[in-house]
Write a structure and sequence with these properties.
The protein has two domains: 173 residues, no CATH class; 148 residues, Protein Transport Mog1p, Chain A. The chain is 32% helix and 12% strand. It is rod-shaped, with a radius of gyration of 61 Å. By secondary structure, the protein is α+β, with helices and mostly antiparallel strands.
């Protein structure tokens, strides 16, 4: 292999990224030194590649033995040697030996030596598909034909490789994958597709609303209206009883006389008699005892098959009367009776219960410091209800409630 071929091989290895710039310069200088020492002979044996220095530093100064200039004029000599002084050397090279054919391309060597070669990328990066960029554009530096350093896959079947003087060709990272902005054709196509979909949707809506099923209401609307929950029932306010009247003088004046025949067991009673006779539930009697009941009155009659009863419990004040009335309502509900709003009045609570053998209707309210209780029970529903309603109306008219807390 001649020294020209060795230099060409070095150029190819540098272009392929197999050599660093420092290794390239070191091996090139060794080849040039060997070429000068052996003379300009084209048929000479190929120069043996110099072994790398043991120090491993390819950037060290190479010492080239001086070459005596030929006696004949420079234009006739086979080689011309230019020696650069140490003061002029600005890079890692001290002496540059330039053959004559290279002087034809570069007539005068710069004082600081030839320009430094562009350092190749770090080995940590991946080599591009077409190899790393040429370190420096040279105009056929070795006097040989321009070599095609493109890889085999960069032929006519694939896009050509980017020129080596393009700095963007060697860039790596996300920016190398950016695409050129579109010309706006894609946006036009997207708008056209959206317009077609809108028109199709409008057409389907017109068909579903006015054409399908002869223009009748769509079934979806009907089903949605049927699925709507019914409006919440409004609670009808309780009827208002007559306005309150002056406080009665005694228990007898506070009660009306029920219809029918008087029954035995009625009359005035105190707390001891109330407990022994058990006219009322046990919890109500205990509450009356705690609240300080003083005396009471019971009026009871038999109206056909219906038994009627009127109670007046006298207590120290209206607060005690309200507590006993509330306890009576709780006891009736715990005993199985329910609130009957159809018969209740504002201030008067009515409870009822019915089974196959007996109908029960009862009411309670507060009259100043008294608790008024109305009781009616019998086997017949209609007779018991009619007797109760008659007695309730008469009692409320005579002594209307003074406390109206229920709604």
């Amino acid at each position: 292999m001649t020294w020209q071929e060795e230099l060409r091989r070095l150029d190819e290895e540098l272009a392929a990224g197999n050599l660093t710039a420092d290794e390239y310069r070191a091996r090139r200088d060794r080849v040039l030194s060997m070429a000068v020492s052996t003379g300009e002979s084209q048929s000479a044996a190929p120069a043996q590649p110099a072994q790398p220095q043991s120090s491993g530093n390819a950037a060290e100064t190479q010492i080239i033995p001086p070459v005596s200039p030929p006696q004949q004029p420079q234009e006739n000599s086979a080689e011309a040697t230019q020696v650069v002084s140490a003061a002029d050397a600005g890079g890692g090279e001290r002496t540059q030996v330039v053959p004559q054919w290279q002087q034809q391309q570069h007539p005068h060597s710069p004082s600081g030596g030839f320009p430094q070669q562009q350092p190749p990328p770090q080995y940590g990066q991946h080599s591009p598909a077409g190899g790393f960029a040429q370190p420096m554009q040279q105009q056929n530096p070795w006097g040989a034909q321009q070599q095609d350093v493109s890889p085999p896959w960069g032929g006519s079947d694939f896009p050509p490789l980017a020129p080596s003087n393009n700095a963007d060709w060697i860039s790596q990272g996300p920016e190398s994958f950016q695409t050129q902005p579109s010309s706006g054709k894609g946006k036009k196509i997207a708008f056209a597709v959206i317009a077609v979909l809108v028109v199709a949707g409008l057409g389907f809506g017109v068909w579903a609303l006015f054409i399908k099923d002869g223009g009748q209401n769509p079934p979806v609307a009907q089903s949605s209206s049927q699925q709507q929950p019914p409006p919440a029932p409004t609670v009808k306010p309780l009827p208002e009883p007559p306005a309150a009247k002056p406080e009665p003088a005694d228990n007898s004046a506070a009660l009306v006389t029920p219809a029918g025949t008087t029954r035995a067991g009625g009359g005035e009673f105190d707390l001891d008699k109330l407990q022994s006779a058990k006219y009322l539930p046990t919890t109500v009697i205990e509450k009356a005892k705690q609240s300080g009941m003083t005396e009471g009155l019971l009026k009871t009659t038999k109206d056909g098959d219906v038994t009627l009863g009127l109670f007046a419990l006298e207590l120290p004040n209206a607060q005690a009367a309200s507590a006993v009335a509330a306890e009576y309502g709780n006891a009736e509900q715990e005993g199985g009776l329910t609130v009957n709003r159809n018969l209740s009045l504002h201030g008067v609570q009515v409870f009822s219960a019915a089974d196959a053998n007996q109908q029960v209707y009862r009411a309670v309210y507060v009259l100043y410091n008294r608790v008024i209780i109305i009781d009616s029970f019998g086997p017949s529903k209609d007779a018991t209800l009619n007797s109760f309603k008659t007695l309730l109306t008469a009692q409320v008219q005579k002594a209307p409630p003074t406390e109206r807390t229920n709604n």
